[in-house]
What we know:
Elements: H1 3-21, E1 38-43, H2 47-66, H3 84-100, E2 106-110, E3 116-121, H4 126-140, E4 148-154, E5 156-159, H5 162-172, H6 174-177, E6 184-192, H7 199-213, E7 218-219, E8 226-233, E9 236-243, H8 270-276
Helix pairs in contact: 1-3, 2-4, 5-7
Function: Functions as a tRNA-binding adapter to mediate NAT10-dependent tRNA acetylation modifying cytidine to N4-acetylcytidine (ac4C).
Protein name: THUMP domain-containing protein 1
Region (Disordered): 1-24, 258-306
Amino acid sequence: xxxxxxxxxxxxxxxxxxxHNNSKRWKGSxxxxxxxxxxxxxxxxxxxxxxxxxxxxxxxxxxxLYGPEKLPNANGGSSEEEDVxxxxxxxVAQLQASNTKQERRFQALESGANNVIFxxxxxxxxxxxxxxxxxxxxxxxKKKSRVILRxxxxxxxxxxxxxDMVKYLTTYLEPWFKTPNCATYKIAFKARNSSHNKRDEIxxxxxxxxxxxxxxxxxxxTNPELTIIVEVIKAVCCISVVKDYTLYRKYNVQEVVxxxxxxxxxxxxxxxxxxxxxxxxxxxxxxxxxxxNVSQNDEEPENGGK
Length: 306
């Protein structure tokens, strides 16, 4: 190989590496936004380790339910003699394609709150996936994580203002609560880094929607058939309707593997809720609010608008 050809390959290789390192240009949003589906995961301080554990656990069960993930790939492998310029063009094409249609099955994003991560999902039902994980953990009693606390599916998102939430939930809740469907239910509401929503007003509004959809829907704080989870983080409201919320210890993967105790009413005080979450106070109780009014509200003490 001539010296000129060698120099040409070196220059091409430099451009290839530069193009690879600048791949962030094609990445989409890295934060939780309205319109996304996924899983909210709370942890005990170590968010990086929590993210790794969560992705491993989610991929393990997603493969069982949906099969192996089909990763975006070029047409076959490249030859060792393939010109670096051609390899660079393929790399750029792959990056551009992954930004448009071929997103990964799971993508870790910033949630907007400390000790909480958001895993965006693609082409799956996060509520069914999380329920399957918890069912398996509850049955096997096999611990599969060290720092993950709760795994809450997010099947709907809207702006975190009361009028937006009421409008969105009026349609969103229909499959579970609109006549002829009905169920016993409770509302699990939590707000992080948000000061513009009043807990009691939100819960009353949601209960009013459920009552209008079918008057036969009844509140049950002890053992409801369905739980409406409403998690507000900054300007985004994350919503889901789940089964077995009490049985699966409020979707806490550390608690669900423990031996079952005699059933008792679940009307936790803030101190008891902190114990459920592994002794970690919620993000809205920290001093990292930068002067915002901090809501000290915790989950569903007396809800359902009664």
